[in-house]
Design a protein that fits this description.
single chain, mainly alpha, Arc Repressor Mutant, subunit A, 3-stranded antiparallel beta sheet, 15 helices
Length: 304
Amino acid sequence: MAPAPDREVLHRRVLAWFDEHARPLAWRDPSTTPWGVHVSEVMAQQTPVARVEPVWRTWMERWPTPAALAAASPGDVVRAWGRLGYPRRALRLRDAAVAVVERHGGELPADEEALRALPGVGAYTAAAVAAFGFGRRAVVVDTNVRRVLARAVEGRAMASPSLTAAETRLAASLVPDDAATSARWNVAVMELGALVCRARGPECGRCPLEDVCAWVAAGSPPDDGPPRRGQAWEGTDRQVRGALVQVLRESADPVGREVLEATVLERLARTDPGALGQVDRCLASLVEDGLVEPDGAGRYRLPA
């Protein structure tokens, strides 16, 4: 295995690259509050940044504080979520806002443990908000960070299918000691993975670590792990659930079950025998998740 690059070299190269190539994302503006950073992190989960930014701007204009969001109705929150996908995140974000108001006087806590205690907040989100929202030293590990470190330091084409303790230890060992630099390092490695060291088609010629990258030095060997399959979309429950929510989002009044089902099937161009059963199943799951409400008269609406 090729030797791993020196820690200081990694810091110097990646931070200098970030200073020149960082995207001017709205939530990176110094005026953005920690709550704004938190909202951006929740919205960006499994969603491209380009789709997030316009929704984030509108959302923050409407609900700039946890108290403002906590006072909003679940239905308004789901409508404002638009087409970001996984709309349960919208309700969890509102639940977190309610918890911030009730437990912390409306001020988002800076402590990672307190952040993790909020609804819908896991280890990654808590660390990211602590680092990017509050400027604290934290270990932020997402898919992009894992891939950059797997290649540059370990000489592997891809990180493990799921986060391992060894990966977390490696990431922690590379975080700079002082808080300000550590926050920049975390976001810089994420950005490098998003823009250059991509899963498919990495642009090694543009990478500041090309000449010290253990993977490049080893000849850029292919991934030797199990085949990785992309997420399906067409015909999945995710697609059907999204279509159901979108029909209700567009309607000012509750929609009858038959009309709702027929509209979704028409939009998805579904005529297969199992289509109606899938719509029924997805509608039931949306009701169970609190994203859709029956009105008692055979019609459905977003939560009041």
